[in-house]
Amino acid sequence: MGRTAAAKSGQEGPPTVRPGKSEWPRRVTAPPGRRRARVLCNRAAGRYRLIEVDDDAGPRRPTPGQFYMLASAEGWLGDDGRPWLARPFSHVRSEPLAFLIDPVGPGSRRLAALQAGQGVHLVGPLGQGFRPPATGATALLVGGGIGIAPLGALAQRLGGACEALLGFKDALAAEAAALVAARRVALATDDGSLGHHGLVTDLLARRLEAGGAFELFACGPEPMLRAVAEAARAANVPAQLAFEAPMACGFGACFGCAFETQAGWMRLCLEGPVVDARDLP
Predict the structure, then answer these.
(1) Domain named Dihydroorotate dehydrogenase electron transfer subunit iron-sulphur cluster binding: which ranges (predicted)?
(2) CATH 3.90.226.10 fits domain 138-279
C-alpha cells in the first residue's frame, strides 16, 4: 500500500470555519488503501470491548465523529465464509486510537476477540465529523449504548469542557461511560439499575428546561437521535447527530448508507455520518 507524505505527517484537510466557531478540521483525510495496525490491548468496558491500536501510518488526530472500516488481519473469513466485509466503527479515543466494540455478530465478535500483538486492517478516517461548538455554548453530549464512542473522542478533543447524558441497557453496560471524560455526566438505564430509570432523552428534557446556552452532540440508535432532534428544535438549540448505518465500503460506492434529508438523499459515509438536526425531514 502507498503512503502519502500528508498521511505520514498527519496533515489534515482544509478546515470548515463558521462564524463563532473555533477552528478544527471537520474532515481528516485517510491515507489511500487499507493498512495494517497492531493491537496494543483489548480490555472490557462494561458489556463492550475496548480495542487500542498502534496506527502509526494514519493521521494522528482524526476528527471526532469520523469512522474507520475495520477487519481483523487474520481469520476474517471463517469456515462458513463470514464475515465478508469490513465493519464501520467510530473511534472512542484518538491518542492512542481506540474503538469500542459490541460483539453482536460474526464481524464484531471476531474484532472483539483480537489480542495484543495481532493485526487489524484499517481504512480511515472516513466521513465528516463533528464541528466544534459555537463560542460561549456548552457542549452537551447525548449518547445511547455503543453510540457513546464518538462522544468519547469529542470529550477528549474538548479537554473535558462539556457535559454528557448517557443511556445504557443496564449498570454493566454503563461502565463504558468512563470513556466519556466530561466534567459532568448523568446516566440513564433501561432497567433502573443505575441512574435515571428510563430514557436518556428524559434527562435531556430536564437539562434543556433548566436553561443555558447549549449545543447538542448526539450518537445512538436512530429513534433516540430523532427524539434529540425534536427536543433541539423545540428548545431552539443547535444539534449535530452522528447516525449509524450498515455499509459495505465506507467511501460512497455501495450506497448502502443512503439517508434522506430535507435537501434530498445523502450518503452517510461521505456527507455524514454527522448530520445537522435542522436537515432532517
Answers:
(1) 244-280
(2) no
